[in-house]
């Protein structure tokens, strides 16, 4: 038998992977990491925490872009995957009905309380959106799509066509024709966009990932009604919000709507094995897979593989057994409350928003008296980035700057965090904001230096 030694590969590449990454993968991304101060080497991850090569412990509130709902290396998931490798059910026979896919579809429908749905498995969030776009076209015989401004639904060509950020679309046109962007939160503009009854589906994130922007109360009900009146399918992109992240199994249900199609991914995978799914009614699915010949009209090679299916089953089991949806709601409330109570006592917090453990802290650089000459409109983004660096380097907290023309720091930690992790985050914000206000001269010089070294790079808005 050929022997394989994973540890020796990690030992060989770990200490200096940056230079090799630049050579073999993406040199500009390597530059970005150095410029924004993400210069740590992490050697261990467990639950919501990471350890660097000096033995220091960090709290990860980036959470693998919100997918690590169970944290890293959850023992039940690890055991389930080890069982799958040991039992080794025959994989990818393709002309079969995989038992683990059946079990996961049933379990997912029960978990999300959508008993009458069919399920279509995919390998990622963006693939769930692509699948939903095709399903919506086939089900309605219409071709165009509508979405809010500031939307993020993924970066493959179809999903990118519904992306609210021009800089992400630029260079990849032409995209899917007929995608209509509607100003976020404007139901009358939506009514106008859907009025000619040619739009197959309206896609929305229950809470927009970029900037962490929830819908105002009642708006989604109004949106659902407009879609019903115009025969437009309502598609909830719950890739980020679903399965507990926003303190509910489905964030759209918490807003009082039952969408025609639901996309899930991050929370179903929880980060171990890539996985996603689209759920929708039998009537809608039957319009796509409408004959024996067309029963595989949309498909992909790996989508029902046993490791991914086992992973999904184990993740749902842990979410249920450990009460993590409720935990997300409870700890999210505590964190939002802690940060809101901090706001009047330190300079620089304009608002704290979100639900469950999907939280955005909007900064107010004016209140911190930070003024970057000639860069007024870039200042919030830069100040948010400066705070992110400080949170990482001084308080061992991984957070992400995500902006919507303003500086927002996004917190999406694993749902398994403890009360003391909530305190860790609040204290890190308190001390960093005080430090930033005290040393704002040095901070401004640092920011301007960063800008000179990397014009353009650090100014880009974060994607998610
Ligand atoms: C709402 C939403 N939809 C789709 C995607 C794309 O998912 P993926 O990165 O798995 O392709 C993301 C990723 O951040 C997302 O937040």
Comma- or semicolon-separated keywords:
Aspartate Aminotransferase, domain 2, binds pyridoxal-5'-phosphate, 4-stranded mixed beta sheet, globular, single chain, about 475 residues, alpha/beta, Aspartate Aminotransferase, domain 1
CATH topology of the largest domain: Aspartate Aminotransferase, domain 2
Unreliable sequence segments:
455-461
| Beginning-to-end CA distance, first to last residue | 44 Å
Give the CATH level 1 class of the largest domain.
Answer: Alpha Beta
Strand order of the largest sheet: 4-12-11-10-7-5-6
Helicity range of the residues?
Answer: 40-55%
Tell me about the largest β-sheet: 7 strands, mixed
Enumerate the distinct ligands. Answer: pyridoxal-5'-phosphate
Indicate how many domains the architecture comprises: 2
Secondary-structure arrangement, i.e. CATH architecture of the largest domain: 3-Layer(aba) Sandwich
Name the CATH superfamily assignment of the largest domain. Answer: Type I PLP-dependent aspartate aminotransferase-like (Major domain)
* Average pLDDT taken over every residue: 93
Overall number of strands: 17
Portion of residues in beta strands equals 15-25%
Structural class: alpha/beta
> Measured on Cα atoms, how large is the radius of gyration?
23 Å
Gross morphology is: globular
> What's the tally of helices?
19
How would you describe what is shown here?
The protein has 464 residues and is an alpha/beta fold. The chain folds into two domains: 180 residues, Alpha-Beta Complex (Aspartate Aminotransferase, domain 1); 247 residues, Type I PLP-dependent aspartate aminotransferase-like (Major domain) (Aspartate Aminotransferase, domain 2), CATH 3.40.640. It has 19 helices and 17 strands. The strands form four sheets. Strands 4-12-11-10-7-5-6 form a seven-stranded mixed beta sheet, sandwiched between helices. Strands 1-2-3-15 form a four-stranded mixed beta sheet. Helix 2 crosses helix 3 and helix 16 packs parallel to helix 18. The longest helix has 20 residues. The chain is globular, with a radius of gyration of 23 Å. About 2% of the residues have low confidence. It binds pyridoxal-5'-phosphate (PLP). Pyridoxal-5'-phosphate binds next to helix 7.
């Amino acid at each position: 038998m050929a022997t394989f030694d994973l540890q020796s590969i990690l030992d060989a590449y770990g200490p200096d992977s940056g230079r090799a990454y630049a050579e073999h993968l993406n040199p500009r991304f390597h530059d970005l990491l150095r410029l924004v101060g993400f210069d740590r080497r992490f050697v261990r991850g467990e639950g919501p925490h990471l350890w660097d090569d000096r033995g220091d412990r960090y709290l990860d509130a980036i959470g693998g872009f919100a997918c690590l709902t169970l944290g890293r290396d959850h023992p039940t998931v690890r055991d389930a995957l080890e069982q799958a490798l040991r039992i080794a059910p025959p994989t990818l026979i393709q002309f079969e009905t995989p038992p683990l896919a059946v079990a996961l579809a049933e379990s997912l429908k029960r978990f999300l309380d959508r008993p009458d749905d069919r399920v279509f498995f995919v390998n990622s969030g963006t693939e769930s959106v692509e699948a939903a776009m095709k399903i919506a076209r086939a089900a309605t015989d219409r071709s165009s799509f509508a979405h809010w401004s500031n939307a993020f639904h993924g970066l493959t060509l179809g999903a990118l066509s519904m992306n609210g950020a021009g800089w992400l679309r630029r260079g990849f046109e032409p995209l899917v024709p007929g995608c209509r962007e509607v100003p976020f939160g404007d139901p009358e503009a939506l009514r106008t966009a859907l009025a000619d009854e040619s739009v197959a589906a309206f896609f929305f994130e229950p809470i927009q990932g970029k900037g962490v922007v929830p819908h105002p109360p009642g708006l989604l009900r109004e949106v659902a009604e407009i879609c019903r009146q115009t025969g437009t399918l309502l598609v909830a992109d719950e890739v980020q919000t679903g399965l507990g992240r926003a303190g509910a199994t489905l964030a759209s249900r918490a807003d009082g709507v039952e969408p025609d199609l639901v996309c899930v991914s991050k929370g179903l995978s929880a980060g171990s094995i890539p996985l996603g799914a689209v759920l929708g009614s039998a009537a809608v699915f039957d319009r796509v897979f409408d004959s024996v010949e067309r029963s595989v009209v949309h498909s992909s090679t790996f989508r029902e593989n046993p490791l991914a299916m086992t992973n999904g089953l184990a993740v749902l089991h842990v979410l249920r057994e450990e009460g993590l949806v409720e935990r997300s709601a409870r700890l999210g409330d505590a964190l939002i409350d802690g940060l809101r109570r901090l706001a009047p006592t330190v300079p620089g917090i304009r608002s704290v928003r979100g639900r469950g453990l999907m939280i955005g802290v909007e900064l107010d650089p004016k209140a911190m008296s930070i003024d970057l000459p000639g860069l007024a409109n870039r200042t919030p983004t830069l100040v948010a980035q400066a705070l992110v660096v400080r949170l990482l380097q001084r308080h061992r907290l991984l957070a992400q700057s995500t902006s919507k023309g303003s500086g927002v720091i996004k917190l999406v930690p694993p749902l398994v965090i403890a009360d003391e992790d909530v305190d860790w985050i609040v204290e890190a914000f308190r001390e960093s904001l005080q430090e930033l206000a005290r040393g704002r001269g040095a901070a401004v010089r640092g920011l301007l230096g960063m800008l000179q070294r990397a014009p353009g790079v650090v100014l880009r808005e974060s994607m998610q």
